[in-house]
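About this split. The held-out portion is used to measure sequence recovery: a designer receives only the C-alpha cells and must propose an amino acid at every position. Recovery is the fraction of positions where the proposal matches the reference. Here is one held-out target exactly as it appears in the evaluation file.
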C-alpha cells in the first residue's frame, strides 16, 4: 500500500500530487470579474441613496414631513404651494393594482401552460414570442393605451360617460400586458426546476395534470413565483412613459380608475424636464418623491425576501 502511494507521488513529481501543478490564472480573473459585477448593483444602490438624501433632507427642512405624507393636495408649483403626496401615491398604487390584476393571472397561466402542458416544440416557439413583449419600448405601449385601448373602452363601456381620455384603467391594463413576460418567464423557469419525480409520484397516485400543476408544482415553485410577482410589481411601480402618456398629468386622489391620475414616476419625469430652478423647493420635490418611491420598493423587496425564504423548497 505504501509502495503504491510512493510510486504515485514519484510519478507526479511532487509530494502533493492531488494539488494542481500550475495555478489557473484564468479562474482568478473570472472570479474577480464576477465579484466586480456583483458589486456594481451594491455601489449603484449606494450611489442612489447618496444622490437622494441631501436634496430630500433640504426639502424636509422646509416642508413638514407629516404634511407631505398625509396631505391630500399636491400642488408644489402653485402659490400657495401644497405638498401632500397622497394623490401621487394613490395614482401609483391604482395603476399598479390594475396592472397586477391583468399580469398575475395571465402570466402565471402562461407559465403553467409552458411548463406543464406545452411540448418542447411549442415551448420553443411560444416562449420567445412571449418574451418579445418585454422588448417593446414603453413609449409604444403608452401610445397604444391612449390611441387604441382608451377608445375601445369608451365604445364598449356599458353605462355612464365611460373612461376619460386620460385614465388609470387603460394605463394599468397596458402596463399589465407589458409585465406579463416578466412574470411568465421567471415563474416558468421556477416551475421547470421542480424535480420530475414529484410529478411522476403524483401521476402514479392518480392525479390529473391540473391537480399536479396546482397542488404539486405550484406549491413547490412558490418561492420563485413570489419573486417573479415582486419583480413585476417593481417594474409597474417604476414605469414612467405609459402612465405619463395614458394616465394623464393631473394629481387626483380618487378610487375611480376611469379618471386621469398622475403617478410618482410621471411627476418626476414631468418636473425633471421642466424649468424649475436648481435648489428651489419645487426642484427638491423630485428628490423627495423619488426617496419615497425608493423606500416603498425597498420595503416591498424586504418583505418578498422573507416570503421567498419562508416558502423555499430545497431538493437534492
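Reference sequence for scoring:
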Amino acid at each position: 500500500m505504501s509502495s503504491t502511494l510512493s510510486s504515485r507521488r514519484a510519478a507526479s513529481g511532487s509530494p502533493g500530487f492531488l494539488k494542481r501543478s500550475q495555478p489557473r490564472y484564468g479562474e482568478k480573473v473570472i472570479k474577480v470579474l464576477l465579484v466586480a459585477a456583483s458589486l456594481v448593483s451594491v455601489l449603484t444602490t449606494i450611489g442612489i441613496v447618496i444622490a437622494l438624501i441631501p436634496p430630500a433632507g433640504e426639502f424636509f427642512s422646509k416642508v413638514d414631513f407629516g404634511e407631505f405624507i398625509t396631505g391630500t393636495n399636491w400642488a408644489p408649483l402653485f402659490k400657495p404651494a401644497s405638498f401632500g403626496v397622497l394623490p401621487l401615491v394613490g395614482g401609483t398604487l391604482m395603476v399598479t393594482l390594475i396592472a397586477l390584476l391583468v399580469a398575475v393571472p395571465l402570466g402565471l397561466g402562461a407559465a403553467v401552460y409552458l411548463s406543464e402542458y406545452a411540448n418542447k416544440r411549442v415551448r420553443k416557439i411560444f416562449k420567445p414570442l412571449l418574451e418579445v413583449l418585454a422588448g417593446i419600448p414603453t413609449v409604444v405601449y403608452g401610445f397604444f393605451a391612449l390611441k387604441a385601448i382608451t377608445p375601445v373602452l369608451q365604445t364598449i363601456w356599458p353605462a355612464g360617460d365611460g373612461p376619460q381620455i386620460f385614465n388609470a384603467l387603460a394605463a394599468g391594463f397596458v402596463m399589465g400586458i407589458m409585465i406579463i413576460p416578466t412574470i411568465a418567464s421567471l415563474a416558468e423557469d421556477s416551475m421547470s426546476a421542480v424535480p420530475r419525480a414529484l410529478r411522476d409520484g403524483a401521476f402514479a397516485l392518480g392525479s390529473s395534470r391540473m391537480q399536479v400543476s396546482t397542488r404539486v408544482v405550484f406549491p413547490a415553485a412558490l418561492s420563485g413565483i413570489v419573486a417573479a410577482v415582486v419583480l413585476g410589481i417593481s417594474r409597474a411601480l417604476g414605469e414612467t412613459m405609459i402612465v405619463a402618456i395614458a394616465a394623464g398629468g393631473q394629481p387626483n386622489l380618487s378610487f375611480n380608475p376611469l379618471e386621469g391620475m398622475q403617478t410618482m414616476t410621471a411627476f418626476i419625469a414631468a418636473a425633471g424636464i421642466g424649468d424649475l430652478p436648481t435648489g428651489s423647493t419645487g426642484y427638491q420635490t423630485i428628490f423627495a418623491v423619488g426617496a419615497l418611491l425608493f423606500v416603498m420598493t425597498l420595503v416591498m423587496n424586504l418583505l418578498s425576501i422573507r416570503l421567498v425564504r419562508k416558502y423555499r423548497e430545497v431538493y437534492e
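Annotator remark: The domain at 63-309 is CATH 1.10.3720.10 (MetI-like fold).
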